[in-house]
Write a structure and sequence with these properties.
Oligomer: single chain
Radius of gyration: 32 Å
Shape: elongated
Order of helices and strands: HHHEEEHEEEEHEHHEEEHEHEHHHHH
Structural class: alpha+beta
Distance between the termini: 26 Å
Helix content: 40-55%
Strand content: 15-25%
Length: 420
């Protein structure tokens, strides 16, 4: 039987059949919509954790010395990030630049005013080589003339922690990322809540809020930390990590292997691997849950097609008597199962995709801005859309196989006289 004839015999000659197929497809639509939404949720949350919380970039590797746990303490057992080591890291193939991360090893405090009230907090002053943030900030993140406020960058996660504390203690409005740009504050170097001593105050200005700096405190150009350490006659900034810039993301694993052989580790890559494993486990669990929904939907499709086989016994017998093969009858009901699965899968993708678009905007009123409408915590991917469509369609066809085989097995004489 030609495909056009097969389609017409399957659905074109029976009034009301399309509405019945639509009803049968509802269960598939629910299962596919849930699968699309959950896959987008897992993919999006993984992206948010890696980029917004860990601050990972595909062509960057953060290197720190190896450590060993001794009771509650961690002791460095690997190499030190001194100038000679930094030069060696620069010579690794595919590494185009090395940027240091350091901390000012002097007690420090941050003082500012918010909503007319003083704000004071002990902090750790972070420093990075200027080139690390130049792609994001350009020439704003450079050494300024004496007397100008020092440019600083705050971590997005740090802003969320500040907002949580301000909401409890002040009750004022939350600080947005854009509102913080241009905010002025002072860093008191040499004094903290636990240390009283000679101190100097340095004015600072927030230039940006970034996900590529740490949450321990404001991040400034390395030159400021070196200058302030000399002014306080304190130790030089403690270089605790180095960020390697790669010429291509595909070289990541080779660079990580080389770094490990030098006695260093790449904690963010290790964390990313654990997150990816956890995401796969969660994803598998959600797929199993949606598969159960599709199995329940398949039972409904099988029952609906079995009812059609019973109602059309005489028509089946007549087609067989006129020369239709068993395979022709089998495909008539498989086509109906296929159409029911396609209708349900397409409807499920539309509903699931709509939820992916709408949910962040609805949730932005009660989620922190890190997971609000401006973040990609629900992320649609091509496999996350095409996979559920294929899954739902195949599940529907599998459900229709048994009633289709029963229809094909009917003998013409028995079907025409209504017998078994």
């Amino acid at each position: 039987m030609r495909p056009d004839n097969l389609l017409w015999v399957s659905v074109g000659r029976r009034p009301g059949l399309w509405s019945r197929l639509l009803w049968l497809s509802l269960g598939t639509a629910v299962g596919v919509a849930a699968l699309v939404f959950f896959l987008a949720l897992v993919s999006g949350l993984q992206t948010v954790i890696l980029t917004h919380i860990l601050g990972m970039v595909p062509d960057e590797v953060e290197v720190v010395p190896q450590t060993m746990a001794v009771g509650p303490l961690e002791v460095k057992t690997g190499g030190r990030l001194d100038p000679d080591t930094v030069d060696k890291l620069r010579k690794i193939p595919h590494v185009t630049a090395v940027y240091r991360r350091a901390r000012l090893d002097i007690p420090s405090m941050l003082t500012a005013h918010y909503h007319g009230l003083p704000f004071v907090s002990d902090i750790i002053i972070e420093g990075v080589d200027e080139g690390l943030l130049q792609p994001e900030l350009g020439d704003q993140f450079t050494m300024h003339p004496d007397g100008d406020p020092a440019p600083s960058v705050l971590a997005g996660a740090l802003v969320e922690m500040l907002n949580a504390g301000l909401a409890v203690h002040v009750g004022g409005p939350a600080l947005s990322r854009s509102a913080l740009v241009g905010f002025h504050f002072d860093l008191v170097v040499g004094r903290s809540s636990f240390h009283e001593g000679n101190s100097q105050t340095f004015p600072c200005r927030v230039m940006a809020v970034s996900d590529h700096v740490t949450v321990s405190g404001p991040t400034l150009p390395m030159s400021y930390l070196e200058k302030w350490a000399q002014a306080m006659q304190g130790p030089p900034p403690d270089v605790y990590a180095a960020v390697l810039k790669l010429d291509q993301p595909d070289a990541l694993q080779a660079v990580v292997s080389q770094v490990t052989s030098m006695g260093f580790k790449t904690p963010k890559q290790d964390q990313a691997a654990r997150i990816a494993t956890a995401a796969r486990v969660v994803q598998a669990g959600l797929v199993c849950f949606c598969a159960v929904l599709l199995v329940v939907a398949g039972v409904g499709i099988a029952n609906g097609l079995a009812m059609m086989v019973h109602e059309e016994r005489t028509d089946i017998g007549l087609m067989r008597a006129l020369g239709a093969r068993r395979a022709d009858v089998l495909w008539i009901f498989l086509v109906r199962a296929l159409l029911s699965g396609l209708l349900g899968s397409v409807a499920g993708v539309v509903v699931g995709s709509s939820l992916v678009v709408i949910t962040p905007h609805l949730a932005s009123h009660w989620l922190p801005s890190l997971l609000g409408a401006d973040s990609d915590w629900l992320h649609l991917t091509a496999p996350g859309v095409l996979g559920p469509v294929l899954f739902g369609t195949l599940a529907s066809m599998a459900a229709g196989l048994l009633p289709a085989r029963q229809a094909a097995a009917l003998r013409p004489a028995d079907a025409l006289r209504g017998g078994e």
